[in-house]
Amino acid sequence: MECTQQPAGDSSDNPEATGDAPTRPCAMVIFGAAGDLTKRLVVPALYNLVVAGRLPESFRLVGCDLVAKTSAEWQSGLLAMMQECVVKGDGEFQASRIDPVHWDWLASRMTYLQGDLNDPGCYARLDEHLCGLDKTAGTGGNRLFYLAVSDRFFGPIVDHLGAAGLTHESAGQWRHVIIEKPFGHDLASAMALNARVGAVLDERQIYRIDHFLGKETVQNIMVLRLANGLFEPIWNRNHIDHVQITAAETVGVERRGRFYEKTGALRDMIPNHVFQLLAMTAMEPPISFDADEIRNKKSDLLRSIRPLRYDEAMPEAVRGQYAAGSVLGRPACDYRSEPDVAADSNVETYVACRIQIDNWRWAGVPFYLRTGKYLAARKTEIAIRFRSAPLSVFAGISPAAGNANWLVLRIQPNEGMSIEFAAKRPGPTVHLGAVRMDFSYKDYFHAASGTGYETLIYDCMNGNATLFKRADNVEAGWRVVQPLLDAWAGTAPQGFPNYAAGSEGPAAADALLARDGNAWRTLT
Ligand code: BG6
């Protein structure tokens, strides 16, 4: 349906023009409005955007789901969930209170539409509803469709949106679609999904989310590298010995056994989240902050990673599964006893791999990646180990000060960064000590922490795709891990479960680094 256009403020699709201003008028539709993601992240993030004054007066939010409920019930259910987070102090929503003025602002703009996402009639009614909002609220014909649903709905919803004309952009209007993860479960399915959504939408309209890119500290990797002259000259194989990227969790699979049994740690974390950290760290400097310029550089980097092959004699990757143990002082069961997990499951809950990047900057520099559930500590960090001094003039005078030079980017928790180096211990003799210079976000900036989704939603509303994955980025990530996925699917792992819950991971992961004369940084 062609909609009457309201005056739409800045109707250009120009991200650079936006700065810190409120977003442009639009209606946002959440498919999966009754689901967990909407409650835990999407609506709390919208609330935070309201508090920050980033949503325009004419903003409207439409929830769409199969569950029958009224708009008032939808609103009050979401409010109750947010209040629960405030009281418990856990979850991604970190507010100390919910300001009723801000909540009312948002709630008064929310409507709920019950519908079956497989039914074309649902989209016809949605179209009618949205056109009504254009007339009454001034949403300007601009639409953001957020697919907060299980991945099996991604293709069908996009097809229905297209068939109903909802993705069609008339002059001066924009229609954007946010697609959650997982984007495919291997290379072939990711390519098929790209082709399917690409048949309906222009790549410019597709926003594939990776929530790691919404984390402040992940974005800061770019600022660290590109806004400082200090690091770039030493950011290469001549000065860097190796890099360790860790995404360690203290949670098990929780209630996600069914999902995890089909997924495993490799698929769940490596080609998406961990590769985004890797790409931010290792890509060539872009010549501008333009979305495609940055995504080109990321794709170049991902394409230069040597695909992970299975080699029993010289493994490039190690998998693990947790046995019972104790995590942060609490008893934890083994993976195979988790709900919805097979008693003889061979699915990995831990993976470590050694990545080689075949380009001039990084040839010969190993990048070690690891991620796992139920580990000793929650820690996501990028640790860069610089080459040792070429000559140890202190040998024989003082015991070495350990591996002297590390630059550690702490993504979470205790966000910040530190530089480790050797210093002389005070006293009459020359005695080296390892010291650390530390920058912590919370000491310097007193901003309230968000869910990470605020920036992503805000950017999407403003047509800025820098922090979203392009089709080729996604496929390049899968291409690296596909040989390993195939090999692991066809070979039973040895000795599963092979690490105790609450430990540093399997011994084989240590051996992976020991082969190169290196060792993992401790998690605790
Ligand atoms: C999700 C994975 O994408 O990322 C989860 O599916 C994982 O298994 C989570 O726990 C980690 O994200 P964060 O932000 O908690 O580090």
Please provide a written account of the structure.
This protein has helices spanning about 35-50, 70-90, 100-105, 120-135, 155-165, 185-200, 215-225, 255-280, 290-305, 440-445, 455-460, 470-490, 505-515, and strands at about 25-30, 60-65, 110-115, 145, 175-180, 205-210, 240-250, 315-320, 320-325, 325, 330, 350-355, 365-370, 380-385, 405-410, 415-425, 430-440, 500. It is of the alpha/beta class and about 525 residues long. It folds into 2 domains: about 10-180, Rossmann fold (3-Layer(aba) Sandwich); about 215-515, Dihydrodipicolinate Reductase, domain 2, CATH 3.30.360. A hairpin with a 3-residue loop joins strand 15 (about 405-410) and strand 16 (about 415-425). The chain is globular. Residues about 1-20 have low confidence and may be disordered. It binds 6-O-phosphono-beta-D-glucopyranose. The site of 6-O-phosphono-beta-D-glucopyranose has 5 residues, from loops.
| Highest CATH level, the class of the largest domain | Alpha Beta
Give the cofactors and ligands: 6-O-phosphono-beta-D-glucopyranose
What number of domains? 2
CATH-assigned homologous superfamily of the largest domain? Dihydrodipicolinate Reductase, domain 2
Q: Could you give the count of β-strands?
A: 18
List keywords for this structure.
524 residues; Rossmann fold; 13 helices; disordered N terminus; globular; 19% strand; binds 6-O-phosphono-beta-D-glucopyranose; Dihydrodipicolinate Reductase, domain 2; alpha/beta; 2 domains; 8-stranded mixed sheet; 18 strands; 6-stranded parallel sheet
